[in-house]
Amino acid sequence: MTQDGQNTAIRNDWTLEEIKAIYYKPVLELIVEAANVHKEHQATGEVQVCTLLSVKTGGCPEDCSYCPQAARFHTGVDVHKLLSQEQVLTAAQRAKDGGSTRFCMGAAWREVRDNRDFDKVLDMVKGVNEMGLEVCCTLGMVNEYQAEKLKEAGLYAYNHNLDTSEENYSNIITTRTYGDRLDTIENVRKAGISVCSGGIIGLGETDEDRIGMLHTLSTLVQHPESVPVNALVPVKGTPLENQPLVTVWEMVRMIATARILMPKTMVRLSAGRERMSVTDQALCFLAGANSIFTGEKLLTTPNPDFDADKAMFDLLGLTPRKSFKEEAQHVC
Ligand code: SF4
């Protein structure tokens, strides 16, 4: 038994062998196990609703092979500079009215620079925070000082995905290292900001890579409070434009394994949801997903809108999670 009387311990000492044994279970058995862990540690039927806004789109110097915003790929993405405070607050209000409790702002930067744009982002964070929304940012790499500034401005969470396994990382991105990613996650954690970090499947990685990424996430000193699981949305003009689409069963396997490894974490069904049926999504919720992005766009790719999601919630008997409900992680 754990200190809080739960039967399943929160562990950060998972071995690769243990994770493989979970990941490769027959899928229905895996779903049942994940659903049991979910029931024990999470409010079943409750789903966090987040909205993601691209506050600065395209022109990014990085070479993430999946990303339409990398300047070096010709994807026809609608490039724009940093939005104004007014544009952001209007979008945040729309998200709040649509039922979102977390508002995430993404900028296509390699890293945060200490300049006027960063000051503007800090103002945006303050403004959205004052609206009673959990504010999240994904701005690329941040150092300790910048993470502290974001925290002071009222930032609640910071997203920085690992994307894939350490072994596969250089096949996907060459302009930064896995270590750089982990350093930013550590800086965010030190500043007392909630960590959101997950990855993408369908990049051409192996099952071992998927297991490797889950191993890194689940053996961090403290599990990320949120783990987004994305399915690649192949975009014309990117090196991964011809990648085959992942199946719902692959998503379910990732989600269920993440749920079992990190019972207290919000597991977010992220990119790729747009082409999933309600039945597909219901399977993901059964397997332990309890967070989604809603709103018509996910940075630059299509996403189900508020009304479609409300209808799905009504059908499946799901309720939106209230904001600021996150509990501190307990790591044994
Ligand atoms: S994923 Fe982010 S860092 Fe990579 S190219 Fe796209 S915007 Fe730049």
UniProtKB/TrEMBL annotation:
UniProt binding sites for [2Fe-2S] cluster: 104, 136, 196, 268
Single Gene Ontology MF annotation: 2 iron, 2 sulfur cluster binding
Domain Radical SAM core residues, every copy: 45-273
Gene3D superfamilies for the chain: Aldolase class I (3.20.20.70)
Cofactor(s) demanded: [2Fe-2S] cluster; [4Fe-4S] cluster
Superkingdom field: Bacteria
UniProt KW keywords: 2Fe-2S, 4Fe-4S, Biotin biosynthesis, Iron, Iron-sulfur, Metal-binding, S-adenosyl-L-methionine, Transferase
Catalytic activity of the protein: (4R,5S)-dethiobiotin + (sulfur carrier)-SH + 2 reduced [2Fe-2S]-[ferredoxin] + 2 S-adenosyl-L-methionine = (sulfur carrier)-H + biotin + 2 5'-deoxyadenosine + 2 L-methionine + 2 oxidized [2Fe-2S]-[ferredoxin]
GO biological process: biotin biosynthetic process
One family name in Pfam for this protein: Radical_SAM
Family matches, as PROSITE patterns: RADICAL_SAM
EC number(s) from the headed UniProt entry: 2.8.1.6
InterPro entries referenced in this protein's UniProt entry, alphabetically: Aldolase_TIM, BATS_dom, Biotin_synth/BioAB, Biotin_synthase, Elp3/MiaA/NifB-like_rSAM, rSAM, rSAM_sf
Pathway: Cofactor biosynthesis; biotin biosynthesis; biotin from 7,8-diaminononanoate: step 2/2
SUPFAM superfamilies in UniProt: Radical SAM enzymes
Cofactor note text: Binds 1 [2Fe-2S] cluster. The cluster is coordinated with 3 cysteines and 1 arginine. Binds 1 [4Fe-4S] cluster. The cluster is coordinated with 3 cysteines and an exchangeable S-adenosyl-L-methionine.
Enzyme class, first EC level, given as a word: transferase
Transmembrane portions of the chain: none
Binding-site positions, [4Fe-4S] cluster: 60, 64, 67
Cited function: Catalyzes the conversion of dethiobiotin (DTB) to biotin by the insertion of a sulfur atom into dethiobiotin via a radical-based mechanism.
Subunit comment: Homodimer.
Annotated family: Belongs to the radical SAM superfamily. Biotin synthase family.
UniProt protein name: Biotin synthase
Species annotation: Pontibacter ramchanderi
